[in-house]
Amino acid sequence: MTRLPASVRHSAWVALLLLAVPAAAVAADPAVDARNYAGPAWSPYLVGAGIGVLAWATFYFSDKPIGASSFYASVAGLIGKLVAPRRTESLDYFKDNAPRVNWGFMFVVAAVLGAAAAAWPVGEQTNRWIPEMWHARFGESIALRGAFAFVGGGLMAFGARLAGGCTSGHGISGTLQLNVASWIAVICFFIGGAFVAALLFRT
Amino acid sequence: MAEVVGTGEHADAAATLKVRTMVQGAVFGFVFGFLLQKGGVGTYHILVGQLLFQDWTVVKIMLSAIVVGMVGVFALHHFGKVELHIQPTRLGPNILGGLVFGAGFALIGYCPGTAAAALGQGSWDALFGMAGLVVGSWVYAELSGRLKQTVERWGDLGKLTLDAVLHVPRKVLVPTVAGTLVVFLIVLNALVER
After folding, report:
1. How far is CA B194 from the centre of its chain?
2. B6–chain A nearest CA distance, Å
3. CB of A30 within 8 A of CB of A198?
4. Cβ(A124)–Cβ(B37) under 8 Å?
5. Per-residue confidence of chain A (203 residues) as pLDDT tens digits?
6. By three-state DSSP, how is residue B85 classified?
7. Which neighbouring-strand residues pair with B123?
8. Using CA atoms, how far apart are residues A103 and A39, in angstroms rounded to an integer?
9. b/e for A106-136, b at 16 or more Cβ within 10 A?
């Protein structure tokens, strides 16, 4: 353990301090209880194991880890190429990651269809613009819900690109490879998330 | 790919490979979306419920996926059947990006993958979030040149895996981590109602 770089030791202390955030979030006593609404259709352990087996398959057949966030960067780059091709090609990120319809692009598009196939034939579709729990807390304005979702999506994409992945790429694929970056990132996802969720929902 | 264009047979082979890659992406993505929806993680209150520590579905799914995925992927890697895809550890961007991601995650109530599942099951508010995800990706791309020179250099430790940091061989660490996570899940399952 003596060979750990100072930065690793320091960040361990920072991580410990940051863990105080979820503790505070628990103490915040949210105004709405998520457990008042319907739970998942399948056991989370079955679903998790299924995703684990899916990870074997994507590594073995496609030489790719499961990931979702780069899809949105591809879409941004493809739209950019249509609207402002020279600007798009001048940006560092798109020089390193040429936007195209690739494996990851198909993966996310097909995920929409897979979820549709899971939900609609058996009456599990939600078919609503405002989630029930949001409605209970913030009312029925679609504009308000839309604004929060849009800003949240923007921050999330920026954070994912900076951190190098999302809840799939880091949270599942990176962590299962015991990648240090991924364990740090996923802990920070939940710290940042718990903090803001507590701000939104505490009484 | 430029060099194979025009030489009929090679161009065909490259095209076949491309089609196969696309089809694989679509098949695996379909299964992923199906599982996310069945796991309830395309649902706002289940995701936000995790961030409020009321509903532990997300952690249960993620840790089960990690245990199963880890054991299989490292076994396949041991027998030379798969390559690992390790990303460099950069403390600055990993921590800052992670915290920003988390803040956004709480505001939208979906993550990039589960937003796709939300849309598929008819949670139309995911469309606003997906538009935001595209715009946020563009903003990052706009700043990527400057970020590369600054934040992304902070705390760069290179490609780093837990077994290297702890000086424990993989054949010991993988079962240890998997076992620890299983015990954690058993305890968690006994403690929480969902």
Report:
1. 23
2. 22
3. yes
4. yes
5. 456 667 667 767 776 777 776 666 666 678 899 999 999 999 999 999 999 999 999 999 999 999 999 999 999 999 999 999 999 999 999 999 999 999 999 999 999 999 999 999 999 999 999 999 999 999 999 999 999 999 999 999 999 999 999 999 999 999 999 999 999 999 999 999 999 999 999 87
6. coil
7. A128
8. 32
9. bbbbbbbbbbbbbbeeeebbbeebbbbbbbe
Work out how many CB contacts closer than 8 A connect A with B: 575
CB-based contact A108:B116 (threshold 8 Å): yes
Token digits of residue B97 = 């990006």
Angle of the B91-108 helix axis to the A180-201 helix axis, nearest 10: 40
User: What are the residue boundaries of the structural domains of chain A, listed by start?
Assistant: 39-201
Name the token pair of B91.
């403390």
The domains of chain B are located at 1-39, 42-191
Q: Can you tell me the ipTM of this complex?
A: 0.94
C-alpha distances in Å from residue B182, one per residue of A53, B53, B65, B161: 16, 19, 11, 21
Fill in the DSSP letter of residue B43: S
> Strand, coil or helix: what is B32?
helix
Nearest CA in chain B to A174: B86
Q: Are B91 and A183 in contact (CB under 8 A)?
A: no
Tell me whether residues B94 and A14 touch, CB distance under 8 A.
Answer: no
B154 touches chain A (CB under 8 A): no
Residue B132, SS3? helix
Give the Cα separation of A145 and A152 in Å (integer).
Answer: 10
Residues 6+ apart with CB under 8 A from B160: A179, A180, A181, B86, B88, B89
Closest CA to A111 of A46, A190, A51, A41: A51
